[in-house]
What we know:
The chain folds into two domains: 6-92, Translation Initiation Factor IF3 (2-Layer Sandwich); 102-145, no CATH class. The strands form three sheets. The protein has a four-stranded mixed β-sheet with strand order 1-2-4-3, sandwiched between helices. The chain has a two-stranded antiparallel ribbon with strand order 5-6. Strands 7-8 form a two-stranded antiparallel ribbon. The chain is 37% helix and 25% strand. The longest helix has 14 residues, at 32-45. By secondary structure, the protein is α+β, with helices and mostly antiparallel strands. The protein contains five helices and eight strands. The radius of gyration is 25 Å and the shape is elongated.
Amino acid sequence: MLKLSAIERSALRSEAHALNPIVLIGEAGLSEAVMKEIDLGLNSHGLIKVRVFGDDREARASMYESICTSLNAAPIQHIGKLFVIYRPKSDASTEKVLRKTGGGLREVTIVKPSPSGTKRPTVTKVMLKGNERVTAGGNIKRAKPRQVSAKKSALKNS
Length: 158
């Protein structure tokens, strides 16, 4: 379990005030799938809230302790049925999540040969969004066409 000072916990509590719970624990309790979701939430956010729907105080307290010890996280706050848990984000886990989802911008190098074939090729570095791709000719295209309303397409065709 990660240990934090009282000042650090206080600062994290104030940050967590505006957060909504991202994991809900129902009647099944603390299952393997719930632990995996909490781990993913900690990897991507660092500071999360968890809501428990059970009425047993002792069971909630033991869940809170077991989550923090098994995931090496710091217990920040336990008020009623809400847990606030913190674990510092690691750079490798965020890169892994971004690669998996393909999110964000990525840099691509485009090499175009000269029209005559005797000069040097032009090399450009371009930032692509998640829904863009580079064609064989070196042009940038969206993977899916932009949606157009029925009214605009009717005006365009007439």
